[in-house]
Structures are given as structure tokens and as C-alpha cells.
Amino acid sequence: MKPTYQNFRISSKARIMLKLSLPNISESAINAVAQVLRSGQLVHGSECDAFEQELAAYLGCMDVVLVSSGTAALHVALLALDIGPGDAVIVPDFTFPATANVVAITGARPLIVDVLSSDYTIDTVQLERLVQTWQGPERLRAIIPVHEFGCMANMEAILDISGTYGLAVIEDAACALGAKLKGQKAGTFGEAGCFSFHPRKTLTTGEGGAIACKSIELAARMRRLRNHGIERNFDGVHFREPATNYRLTNFQAALGRQQLPQLDDWIQVRRKLVKDYLQELTPLSQRGLLCLPKWQEEHSWQTFMILLNVPPCRRTEIIEQLKLKSIESNLGAQSLSTIGIYGQPLQDCPIGATLYRQGLALPLYERMTTDDVKLVAASLALILSP
């Protein structure tokens, strides 16, 4: 089918802003939260326990540990694997800085590797080259692949590299709850898989996060690390090690539980909308005005980002012009090597830097319609046309 945005009429009347993302909170979810609030059991409780079990069943993993954010999930995973001063952890260049921040705050060194232009995930050829040639003073301990925007990184190659060189794998699946690779869910390939429930995510608890674990023993330690190092047994409470307070609240868990049964349906709607975007924006791609992401069937499409083929300085102007048309847009993620707070990068990361400077995230959420997509495409066509 040919795209239809050329004939799509853009009304001059005032419209409600088409947001970049919009949480999908039902009345039943609001009522479930209210019920917990009325109960008085606000910190970790039965809703959290049930949500952990339901997430583990959904993911098909041994255990899930709830925490207060996606960043907390990454931090706890590193602490549970005893990663700290004297260690180094490999991260992709194009991601939200939390991926590298947690490495730095443990005292370890983040090592940055460029990403692929086709799907924005870590370049495994450059990853292996770094591992093979590493001669730094720190000991290589782990890889944190990021499933950027819900697109699975090349886990087969990553697991081959990690297995050959004895490295742990911590998946940053913050955007990828429900994504799969050959039928296996994101977050279940490595020693730990870390998720975020921020409002930009398809399933949200406001703030919040979770860690998928293969090991019951590792999950038990993570539960201590999220709760002041406490271990409870028949003779009371014991403080086993210095730790954090990264607990999720009981009412946040109630909110997440109400959404989980609908998650796969929501992801299917997002996939349909992305197909609409790809169809409507192909003419602009063919004209060399932008590049489109590669379609992947098992992608969860938390964000839809295009790459503008215009001077980087124009992106801010384009964002403002879309806003005038009641369409919210933004950059996609950061380039860790470009923001420059993690020391001197060992490799150049030209692709990550370009995605950072010229990536444009467009509205995507399951309550959008095909007409909404056509409106965005038509508006972009007008703005980008000479």
C-alpha cells in the first residue's frame, strides 16, 4: 500500500497535544491502588510478593525481585555480583546514562562500545575487539547490553563472548518488558535482567523496577541488598551486610499487577502503529530526509525513533515546529562518550554520537490511532520539505 499522508488534511483548529507517550491506567488499576492505600500496608507487602511471582511466570525465569527503579535494578545487580573498585564493565554508547552511572557509582569503570545504526544496540564486533585487546589495569567483569527502545541486542553473540572470556551478563531491559528473541523473553538470557516501570514504559508503576534472576541464591542476596541488608528467619531480623533501601511500595505493585495481563495486547497495538509509521515515512526516507529503524517482529517498541538527515542544529527547530502542531517529540537517548563524564573513551563511537545528535523520538502509545500516525508523518513532511 502507498502511504496516504500526502492527502492527509492537517486541521488548523486547536488540538489536544499528541504526547510522546501516555500511561495506560484503567479505573480498575486506580481502584486497586486505592484499596491498598486504604489498607495502610504501603511498603513491601502481599501485592509486591504476588507481582514478583506473576512477573517470573510471565518472563519464564526462576525469580523476580522488585525494586524502586530501573536504575536501582542495575545497581543491585552489580552489587549482588560483587562488582566494584578494580573492575570494568562494558556498556553501549547509545543509552540513558543510568546504564553507565551505576557502574561508576560502584567504583568500577564503564567501558563504552559503539552501537549499530540499524537497531541502536551494541555492536558485537567492536565488543569482542575490546574484550580481546583489553590491557587496562581493571579486571573485565561484565557486559551490560541494552535492549534499546525494546529491540533485543544480539544475545547469541554476546553470550558467546561472555562465555569465552568469563564475563557476567546483566541485561538492561528497561524498555524491553515483553520483547523476545527467538521466543525467549528479554531479561532472561544473562545472570540478571533489569526492567524499568517509569511512566515512559509500556507498563508503569510511576517509578519502579524489577530484576529477573536465574539463581535463587542470587535473588536472595538481591532481596537483602534492596532492604538494608536484612535477612529474616525464625529467630528474627539479621543485618547481614551494608545495603540500600530500594524497596517498591505495595500500591505501586498493585498498579503493575493490573497492567501485566494486558501487556502483550498493548505491545501488539504498538507493533501495528510502528508498521503504520514505517509505511507513512518511507517516502521521506526515500528522499534522503531521514532514516528509519529496522523492523523486527519481536521488538516491543517502547519508543519509535527516526534519524534525521539534517544538520544537528535543526532538530531543536523541528521539535519546536512539531510542538506548534500539537505533536510532542524529543531526542531518543544519550551518547555516553559524547556527554563525557566517564573518562576518556577507548574507542570512537560515531554512530552513537550521530544517533544522540540527530535521533528524533515520535509519539507512540497504544491509545494512538493510524490517523494519529498519519498526522505526525504529514507534519514532518511539511517541516522537512525544502
Entry summary:
The chain is of the alpha/beta class and 386 residues long.
As residue ranges, the low-confidence spans are none
**Per DSSP, what share of the residues sits in E-state strands of 2 or more residues?**
15-25%
Which H/E pattern describes the elements? Answer: HHEHEEHEHEHEEEEEHEEHHEEHEHHEH
Span of the ends, CA to CA: 26 Å
What sort of overall outline do the alpha carbons produce when their principal axes are compared? Answer: globular
Q: How helical, in percent, are the residues? A: 25-40%
Classification by helices and strands: alpha/beta
Compute the number of strand runs: 16
Mean pLDDT across the residues is 95
Number of helices: 13
Q: Give a short account of the largest sheet.
A: 7 strands, mixed
- Strand adjacency order, main sheet: 1-10-9-6-5-2-4
Radius of gyration: 21 Å
